Amino acid sequence: MRDLLLQNTRPMGGPLADILIRDGRIAAIGPTLAAEGVAIEDADGRIAIPGLVDAHTHLDKSLLGYPWYVNEVGPKLIDKIDNERKVKKDYGLDAHIQSMRQSLQSVGYGTTLIRTHVDIDTDQGLIALEGVMETRRQLADVVEIEIVAFPQSGLMRRAGTAELLDRAMAMGADLVGGLDPCGMDRDPKGHLDTIFALAEKHGKGIDIHLHESGELGAFSMELIFERIRSLGLQGKVAVSHAFCLGHGDWTMTQALIDTCAELDVPILTTAPPSREVPSLKRLRAAGVRFGAGVDGFRDTWGPYGNGDMLERAMLLGMKNNLRRDDELLMALDVCTTGGAVAMDRTQHALTVGGRGDVVIVEGETVGEAIVTHQPRSLVVTAGHVVARHGVTLRERP
Amino acid sequence: MRDLLLQNTRPMGGPLADILIRDGRIAAIGPTLAAEGVAIEDADGRIAIPGLVDAHTHLDKSLLGYPWYVNEVGPKLIDKIDNERKVKKDYGLDAHIQSMRQSLQSVGYGTTLIRTHVDIDTDQGLIALEGVMETRRQLADVVEIEIVAFPQSGLMRRAGTAELLDRAMAMGADLVGGLDPCGMDRDPKGHLDTIFALAEKHGKGIDIHLHESGELGAFSMELIFERIRSLGLQGKVAVSHAFCLGHGDWTMTQALIDTCAELDVPILTTAPPSREVPSLKRLRAAGVRFGAGVDGFRDTWGPYGNGDMLERAMLLGMKNNLRRDDELLMALDVCTTGGAVAMDRTQHALTVGGRGDVVIVEGETVGEAIVTHQPRSLVVTAGHVVARHGVTLRERP
C-alpha cells in the first residue's frame, strides 16, 4: 500500500493539517482530510518537514559496524588518501555492506534523497561502484541514491583512472566526479578536459570536489566556467565544498558567485566549522542553487558525523551565524527542498504534487527541531513508512 | 556518605580499573580495589573521565523552561543587548530559577565546575547576581559555580554601572567582568582602568569578553597587557573569546599569543563555527592556559546549545580540524582538566589526590564518547552521585 493519510501534523510548524499521499505524491494538505482504503498515521500535532536531502556524502567508505577506527593518520591530503586505500584492503571493506549500513542509518534520520561520491581507482577498480549500485537497487523503495563516479586518488596522476571512469559511466553512474584539479592532480587542464569529455560522451552532469581555497580555488573555478560556457553545459556542473567562495576578498568572491548564478552552477557544502565556506545567504541572494551534505563520516578521514541532515542544518546555521527563526528555516530548506533543487529534483517539497516524502520531527517549532535534532518520530518515503522513532524498518546488515 | 568505590571503569579509555573516592578526593586508582563502608557503583567497563568544566557561560539568561523563543532580533550587537533587557522585563525572568535550570541540566551532562558571567546593569541592578548566588549556595554539593560580575550593557556608556560592579564584588562575586572596551563602550581606557581598579580594590581576578577581531582586538589586548604588567596582575586576568588570536596575520597573532604566555593570561573559548577563534594547538604549544565553555544558550541571543561540554569538545575538535584520536584527547582536556587549570583549579584531574569528580561516559574510546556524546551513564561530584542516565538527581524548578 503506497497511499497514506498523515493526520494531525503541523507542516513546517504551522497550523494543524493532514497530509494525504497517493501514488507516491502529496495529493492534498488540509484540515481533517478523509480518505478510504489508505493507511493512517497520527502525528499527534508534531511538525512535518520534507524528506531530508544529503547532497554530498561517501556511502562506500564509512566504517560503520566496525570497531572504532583509531585515527593516527598524517596531516597531508595525500596521507589520508593513501591510508584509506590501505585500510580498505586490510579490512576487506565491502562497499555494498557499508553503503547499506550508512544509507539505512540516514533513512532513520529522515533522509530520502542522497548524492554519493563513489571511489574509482586503479587499486579497486569498479567494485565499490558495483556495491553501491546494488545498495541503490535494494533500497529503491526507501531512499533515492544518485551516484557520482569519483576519482578520489587522482585522475592524471594514476594512469588508467580515466578509462575506469568511462566504464563507470557506462555501467550506470549518474555523474562524473572530479577532485582539486590543481592541488591533487597538478594538471588542471588535463583533469578538467578529461572529466568534461566524459560528461559530454555520456550525456551526464559533473560534480567536482573543490577544496582549493583562495586564489587557487578561484583559478580552478574559472577553468570550470570556461568549459561550461564553451560546451554549453549550463546547469549540468555542480561544485562541492567550493571553499574559495568563502574567501575574505569580497570582490573576487562576488565575481565567482555571480558567475555561478549566470552559468547555473549548483554549490554543495558540508559546512565544516574549520574552513571558510560559501555563505548561505550570499549564495541565495545571488540565486545560486545550494545544497548540503554530511560528507563522509566515521571513516579513515575523520571521526565526526552520523548521517543526520537535521544536525547538519544546525551546523550550517552555526557556521553561517544564523540566529533568527526565519534564518533557521533557510538552513532547513538547504537541507531539504533547496538541496533537491540543486540536484535537479523540483518536486521534492511539502506541497500538493510534491513527492510523498515526509518526516515527522520533535519540537515546538522548526527551530527547536533543528537545534535539538531528537530522534525522528516517523519517516515516509513516497507514501511508505520507512522508519519510526529514529530507527529504519529495514534490517541493517 | 561521601566515600565511593567506582568499579570496572576504564579511566580515559585505558585498561579496567576501580576508582576509590574518600572525603571528596580520589584516594586510589587501580585494579580490583577493596574498601569497606563505602558506596559502590559498577561502571561495567565504561570509560571514566574527569568532571566536565564549563569555563564560559551565562547561567542567568537562558530561557529554559519557557516556550521556544522565536528570535526576530536585529543584526547588531546592541540590538541583541537592548532586546534582552526588554525580554527579561516582559518575562519577569528570575535569575535564580533560570540558573538552577541550566546548572542542573549541565550537571546531567557531567559538568562539575562552571564559570558564569552574570549581568549587572542599571535596569536590574544586582538581582541576577543575588539569584545566581542563591543557586550556587543550593547546589554547592553538586557543582562548583564561579561568578563573574559582567557589565553586559556596557560600563562607561551607562552611568552607575561601575558602582554596581563594586557592590557586586563586595557581595561575593569572584571576578570582575569586562566587555569589548572599544566596540561596546567606545572608551577603552575608561573601561579597562575601571575594571582593573575594581579588581585591585577587591583583590580579585578579571575575565573580559573580547569579541573584537583583527587589529581592533589586538589593540584591546595590548591595553590589557599594559595594565597587567604595570599592576603586577600576571595570572589574574583571563580573556574570553579572543577572536583576534585567530586572525590570519600569523606574526601579529603570534606576538599576542606569546604575550599571553608571558603574562599568564588564560584564554577561554566557545569555539563558534562562524568566527575566527584561537587555535587549540597553537595556544597549547605556547603554554597558554586554555579552557572552553558552552556560552549562553536557548536565550534571546541565539537558539543553539544545550550545556553539554562533551558536545562542545566535539565542536572544538571540528573547529580546530582535529581528526586523530590523540587530538580528540586534547579537546577533552580543554573541556575538563585544562579548563579547570585556566580557572586556577589544579586538582581537577583523574589522578590520586584529584577532586572526586568523575563522569562515566558511553563509547568504545574517548574519541567515540566525544563524537557521539550519548547520555552520561553516571556523574559523580566529590564522591557523590549527582546524575544517572543523563538526568540529574536533584529536581529541577
UniProtKB/TrEMBL annotation, chains A, B:
Q: Which GO terms describe its molecular function?
A: hydrolase activity, acting on carbon-nitrogen (but not peptide) bonds, in cyclic amidines
Which one Pfam family would you cite for this protein? Answer: Amidohydro_3
The superkingdom listed in its UniProt entry is: Bacteria
- Domain Amidohydrolase, by residue range, is 121-386
InterPro entries reported for this sequence: Amidohydro_3, Metal-dep_hydrolase_composite, Metal_Hydrolase, Metallo-hydrolase_Enzymes
**Protein name, please?**
Cytosine deaminase
The organism is Rhizobium oryziradicis
> Which classification does the entry list for the species?
Bacteria, Pseudomonadati, Pseudomonadota, Alphaproteobacteria, Hyphomicrobiales
